[in-house]
Amino acid sequence: xxxxxxxxxxxxxxxxxxxxxxxxxxxxxxxxIVERMSGTNRLIIVVNKTDLSxxxxxxxxxxKISAKIAESRKTVIxxxxxxxxxxxxxxxxxxxxxxxxSSIINMLARKKVARVSAVAGTTRNVQWVKISDDLMVxxxxxxxxxxEKKEDLIRKKxxxxxxxxxxxxxxxxxxxxxxxxxxxxxxxxxxxxxxxxDAESLLEAIxxxxxxxxxGGKLNxxxxxxxxxxxxxxxxxx
Length: 238
Hints:
Elements: H1 2-13, E1 16-22, H2 32-38, E2 43-48, E3 62-64, H3 72-83, E4 89-95, H4 101-109, E5 129-132, E6 135-139, H5 150-155, H6 167-176, H7 179-188, H8 199-209, E7 213-214, E8 218-219, H9 221-231
Parallel strand pairs: 1-2, 1-4, 2-3, 4-6
Antiparallel strand pairs: 5-6, 7-8
Helix pairs in contact: 6-8, 6-9, 8-9
């Protein structure tokens, strides 16, 4: 309840709300409650990570960017300034964990002012960052709908799974069921997936390629699982 009230206050206090979503799962990373609380007059949907995947279609009030591409800075700033006449404008970035909110703030500031990490839930405290005399921005801790299935949160990288290699088996199974991901991971990790039809075999192939062994000459599939999970941060789909 405390977190909800904090989020509600920040949304009410901001002039513009940037709902950051992942281009690889645009609809699945939207937050209907945030959209309702923000209202269409203040809301901009920011489709991030378009360097990884190009969404087939975007909502009417959305912009497409990649925090890794410098040209995106102008796109975001212009969109904010068109939404409000207030100066300095106060813009709040909100979205699922790990969708790139802090990276966008760093891009806008042209320096590292917000902590960036691939670990979900990095942002803990609210900090307003001055971008110019006309604009201030802040991000809020990652949020997701109450009751969302754990497997969906794992797929969206919305919870920290890096220290839990057992999730590598779950993600490995999903990769093998997707023709696109299967081809991508083979190229990314430089392994052959011919004849590989289960997660254990996939992890063993990764371990062999990276020469990962534990005592007794057994393949270190746990370390291979961590490598797989890290690689999936840049996958073309989630």
